[in-house]
Amino acid sequence: MEKAILVNLATSQREKEEAEESMSELGGLAVSAGATVVEKVFQYRREISPKYYVGEGKVEELARLVDKTGADLVIFDHNLSPTQQRSLEEALKVKVLDRTQVILDIFAQRARTNEGKLQVELAQLTYLLPRLKGKGQAMSRLGGGIGTRGPGEKKLEEDRRRLTKRIDRINKEIEEIQKRRARQRHSRQKSPVPNVSLVGYTSAGKSTLFNFLTREKRYTSPHLFATLDPMIRRVTFEDGAYFFLSDTVGFIKKLPVELISAFKATLEEIREADCLLHVVDITSSEAMEQALAVENILEDLEIMDLPVVKVFNKIDLLPQEEKLNLLRKNEPDGHFPVYISSLTGEGLDTLKKRLRHILFQNYAEFKLFIPRSRQEIVNSLQRQSIVLKRTETSGGWEYQIMAQENVLSPYLSYLKRGENP
Length: 421
Prior knowledge:
The chain is an alpha/beta fold. Helices cover about 45% and strands about 20% of the residues.
């Protein structure tokens, strides 16, 4: 396991006040990438050094710390220019990474599907392309580990023309994925079944909530970015009504623009949802700031006109009295946040009632009888409604369905009289 020194430079009073929290998050990223944090270094300086980012005196201090701790790498809580990164590696004689590279490395480790791997490689290559000068030699000198996963040394040593061709090929493959996803979304849009997407800061508990609602066993972890590849599953209510729930990648402050661009096909799933569940870790001291970071990213993606249910998660970690007070605030059809524990299930009945109200407020239940001679009616009915119950009789089929009234006109003659709302 690599030993890492973390570095933060604050150039304003506000950055100075936020430095400790930002470094704590960077530490979580470093651990998720596979490093052990051995030291944290802070500097307050009005100007950024064009050569080293931090001041020369701080570089000398870092060099001494590297020798003292036996650190393998130094991670900056900022984006470094290619010149700054090369200058620091020459001065410190160890690998130097910035925040974006660590996040990209975690994504490279976590991606499981072909789509996820392509998206991560595209993000890495897009980020590394302007940094290629001398990069291959630097990697050979400094060894492997964090920051070298994904494309690998060979690809980074390719000339720009071949690398650009690789980026073009990946873009074409991802474009095909986008087209396939668009067709799937179009098919779902024609379906009467609503779609809900989970969004939230990384490690807020989205996948645990997804597992509880869908009875899946999706991988969960306290590490950041445990979930990369999207998954869609059915969530069923007691009466048979259901919706599709999708789990998505977690967001983070300073989310690399390369990732947002590369994961566009995945993020499109969020845009096409009928409702968003914004999951917030209520135990985090930065809960409000993290929630705002997610909202800002959604705004950048132009996904702010959808119904959003804010879900404060992990109440099981709060003192008992505080937890009970929050649960009393839960309203099944209100506009306030819902307080839950996706681990114990507390508050989830209220959350499902809230979703039921939002997703199905324009639906009504109907009972119909379709004779065997009208098989084509059966097919169209199943496409345009949610079937709660189907019973076969000698003369045909009895259906109990949920549907919006505006799609019911072709089936009025098949309604069972006196049994419909």
